[in-house]
Design brief:
By secondary structure, the protein is mainly alpha-helical. The protein contains ten helices and no strands.
């Protein structure tokens, strides 16, 4: 994702009407990755959902009101989509998933599950407020969700 594409997503995220509709479309892209005919390790993580996750994060970072009534309506969809994405990618190495792409943001994050968790944390912070996000962080929810051994514990903690 180059700087022009990032700027486009941030600009789209600045309008509540566009944010609501575009985030719904991005969540559906994350939940229903396109099937491929290839069966390499690179295909373990569908690049379309990762791109949609990056775009979602860019849009979410531009929302200034916290908690946001627009996002509050989308929290169930966002939660489901990003937890499914995390479940598909937990424990996978980003270097394998991104051999054919060079997205600065993905490389900085390190693994696709962490990208989903960063996006989910941003969505929760913007939709439900900083207090809820801080409580989840304090309880260690994100590291639990990122680890293959403790992912299920993180899901239970997030659900509670």
């Amino acid at each position: 994702m180059d700087s022009d594409a990032s700027e486009l997503w941030r600009t789209l995220g600045g309008d509540d009407f566009f944010t609501l509709h575009i985030l719904r479309l991005l969540m559906s892209k994350i939940q229903c990755p396109a099937s491929t005919d290839r069966s390499s390790a690179e295909d373990m993580v569908a690049l379309g959902p990762l791109a949609a996750t990056c775009a979602s994060l860019e849009m979410l970072t531009t929302i200034y009101s916290s908690p946001s009534p627009v996002l509050r309506e989308l929290v169930p969809e966002i939660l489901c989509a990003l937890l499914e994405q995390a479940g598909r990618t937990v424990g996978q190495d980003m270097s394998i998933a991104t051999r054919s792409i060079q997205w600065r943001q993905l490389q900085e994050v390190g693994n696709p599950c962490r990208l989903s968790m960063e996006t989910l944390a941003c969505a929760i912070s913007k939709a439900l407020g900083e207090r809820v996000a801080a409580a989840l962080c304090g309880e260690g929810t994100w590291p639990l969700l990122e680890s293959p051994q403790t992912h299920h514990e993180g899901v239970c903690q997030l659900a509670s």
